[in-house]
Request: fold
Amino acid sequence: MALAELTRRKLLGTGAAVVAAGAPLGTILRAGAARAATTANQTLTVGTNIPFTTLDPNTINTSVFPFRNSVFDPLIDILVTDIAKYQLGKIQNELATSYTVNPDYTEIRLKLRAGVKFHDGSAMTPDAVVTALKYATAPATGGTMAGSLADIASIAVDGDEVVLKTSAPSVDALYRLTLFRMQAPSGFAHNANTPVGTGPFKFVEYVPGDHVTLERFADYWKPIPSNIKTLTFRFFTDPEAMLNAALSGELDILQFGLLKDAPTLTSAGWAAYAAPIADYQMLVLNYSGANAALRNVDIRQAVARAIDRKAIVKNVYYDLVQPITIPMSPADPTYDAKIAAEWDFDLAAAATFVKKSGISNPSFQLRAGSNDPDAQKIAQIVKGDLAKIGVTVDIALVDPTTLVNDAIVANFQANVYACSIGVPEVQDFEDCSVYRPNKGPFSGDKTFPDFKQAYYAAAAVVDPQARIAAFKKVFETLHQDAWAIPICMRGLLCGQSRQIAGVAYDAKTHLVYQGIVKS
Amino acid sequence: MWTFVIRRVLISVPVLLSASIVLFVVLYILPGDPAAFVLGDSATPAQITAFRHTLGLDRPVLLQYLFWLGGLLRGDLGDSLVNGYPVARLIAQRLPVAFELTAGAMLIGCGLGGAMGLFVGVRPHSKLARVIDLANATAIAMPVFWLGLLLQIVVAVQLGWLPAGGYVAFTTSPLGCLRSLTLPCFTLGIGTAAVLARFLANGIQETIGRDYVLAARAKGLPPPRILLKHVLRNAVIPSVTVLGIQVGRLIGGAVLTEVVFSLPGLGTLLWTALVQRDYFVIQAVTLLAVVAFVLVNLATDIAYGVIDPRIRGDGR
Reply:
C-alpha cells in the first residue's frame, strides 16, 4: 500500500474489522462477568478502605476487626445493639458456656464448651485456651491484647474450667476479656499470615494489599444462619474506587468509606450508616494549658458553649452521627442529660463568660491534622463560632505524627482530636484516652488532679448503680474544668447492598458475619 | 559499541548513589517521628526513646545512611515498621503486579501510539489525523487518577463490562487477569500513547520530505519498504528517547493507577507506607523506582546508540 494510498474507505474498513474483532471480546468479557454472577450468591464480598496490616488476632486495630470476627471466636462476647447510639447489649457466652465473677472482682471462672474444633481439625481443650490466653497476655507475643488484659495475673485450668485471677479488684476485666479471640497454639508461629482459629470461616488465602479469602468452616460448633460459603475481603486504598466497586455490583458490603458518599449509596439502593470507629469514636477540642487565655476557666466555659455542634454534625458528618457534650454515648446509662445540656450551643451565655473572664481579645492556636479533612472543617466552623464571641482562633494544620508527638509532651495550645469514648458503666472495658490518667496526651497530675481522683474512685466502685452515680460525678468535674470539649461522635461509612440481610455489629464496631443472608 | 555501553553503565553508578543520598535526606528531614507514630499516643517518651534506639534512629545521620546503604548492598532492605515483615519480601510480593501493569501500559502506549503516530505522520492533513491530534492533546492533559475514575464510572459502573478494581493473578485465571488489568493499563498507557504518537508523527513528517526518501521513491522502491527502512528508522530516534522518559511517568502514574484500581502492586505498597509512615518501605520502594528509571534510561541510551551509530562516538 502506497503511503498516500491509505484512503478513508480503507481506514473505515480497518475500523470495522477492529469493531468486529472487539465484539467477541465484549462477549468474552460479559461471559466472564456472568460466570462470576453464578457464584455470587455464595460469596460475600466485603470492600474495606483499611487494608489489613496483620492477621494476628492479638493485634487490635480497626483494620483487622472484621477479619478476626470471622476466623476467631471469643470466649464471651458483647454486642452493640444499637449502632447509631453505640448501645451495648449484655455479655453472652461463646466458646465459654458460663462465666462467674467472684464478689470482690478478682477472679473469673469460665466453663468451656465441649466439642469445639480448630480449623486444623484439632480439639479446643482447656489447656489450649490457657496457652492461648497466656500467649495473648505476654507482652512479647500478645500485641495490643497484652495491654488490654494487663491486669490478669494468672491463668490456670481447674477441672473443666479456666480460672483467671486479676492483680487487683477489676470490674472491667470481664469486659476486657470480650476482646480476646481464641487461636490454635499450633498456629502461633504463622498467625500473622495463615492463622488458625475456631470461627465460622477458615482462612484460605491472603494477598497483601489485595484481598483475604475465607471459606465456611464445616465443623463449626454452632449452626450458622447464613447461606454464605465464601467470604472475601477486598482492600481499597481509594474510597472513591471502593464506592465505584460497590456501585458496579462487585461488593456486597462496604465498610469504612466516606460519609459524604452515603447519599450516593442510598440512591443506588444500598443501606448506608455511620459506624463508630474502633478506638476513635469521639471528636474533642482540648487544650494543654500553654495558652494564657485558655488557662482561664471562664474562657474554656465560653468556648464549650460557643461551638455549634449541630452545624458540625450536619456539615461535616452529614447528620449521620450524634453531637455530644460529655464523653459518653447518649445511649449509655451514665449519660446525664442535665449535665450535657450545660454546654448546649448558647452564644449569649458564651459571651457572658468571656466578659466574666476579664481577658480582652482572647486568642489561641487550634491544630488539626493535615491529613484529616473532617478535623479541618470542624476547626473552620469552631473558628467562625468563636469569632462571634470575640475569641480569635488561628488554625494550624499539622502532620499527624507531629500532632501526636506534640500532644504527648503538651507542646500545643488546642487540638481537634479523635479519641475513644468512655464506657464507665458495669460493662466498662474502654476508658477514655483523652481523660486517661497518666497516659495519653491530656492527663497528668498537673492538668487533671481532680479528674484523676474522681476517675479512680468511680472505677473502683463495684455496685452498678453507685458506679453510674460516681461517673456522673466525674462528668460534673469535667464540665467544671472544661479542659476537653466533646464535639460529636465520629463514624465511618458502612453500607450493604439490598441483597444482604443480617449485618450486626459487636462492641468494638466491627461486623459479625454469622447472621448474613444473601438473596 | 562496548566502550559506549561501559561508559554509560559507569555514569549510572554515581547517579544511583546521588539518588540514594537525596532519598535518604528527604525522608530524614520529613516532620514527625516514625517511632512515635508506630507506638501511638499511648506511648510514653521512654518507650519512644527505646524504640528509636531499636530502629537505630538515635545514631548520627551519616551513620544511619551508611548502615542503610550497607544493608542495601547485602540485599537487606530492613523490616516494615508496621507489620515487621522484611521489606524485600513485601516488594517481591508486589513486583509481579507492578511489572504486569507497567508492561501492559507500555504495550498499549507503544501499540496505540505507534499506530496513531504512523497514521498522522503519513496523512497529516486528513480529518482523522486532526481528530487524533485533538484526542492526543486531551489524553496528555488528563490526570491519571481522573481518567481512571472516569473509566471506572463509565466502563465498570454504567456499562458493567469490566471490574472497577482488584487483581486476579494470571496463574489463577488468564481471562480474569486480562479483565482486571485492562482498565488500569489503558489508564496508564494512554498518556504514553499520545506523547509517542506526537513525536513519531513529527519525526515521520520531518523525514518523509528528505532528499533520500525522494530518491528512494524515484528508484521505484515499494512504499512499505521506504516507510520501514528509510523513514521510520530515522524518525523513531526521538521517540525512543521519549519512551525512556515516559518510563518515569509510568512509574509515577502507576502509584495513582494502582490506588485508583486497588491493585496490590508497588504503588499501593508505597501509598500505604506513606500513610502509615513506614519509612523503610518508602525508602526501598522509591529507590527501586529510581533504579528502574536509571536502568531503562541506560537501555534507551544503548538503543539510541544501536539505531544511530553516530551517538556512540567510537569513530565509526
